[in-house]
Input
Amino acid sequence: MLFISISTVKSHRAKIMEKLGIDSPTHLVRIAIKLGLVDPDF
Output
């Protein structure tokens, strides 16, 4: 299991969103579901 701080998660999420050109965490989740990175039924 990976143990990282919440601030690290927020930082990584912000960088990913910037690279993808999106400004909504909801949009990020939709992309992750579409790519099969997360299970929408989880």
Residues 2 and 9 are 11 Å apart (CA to CA).
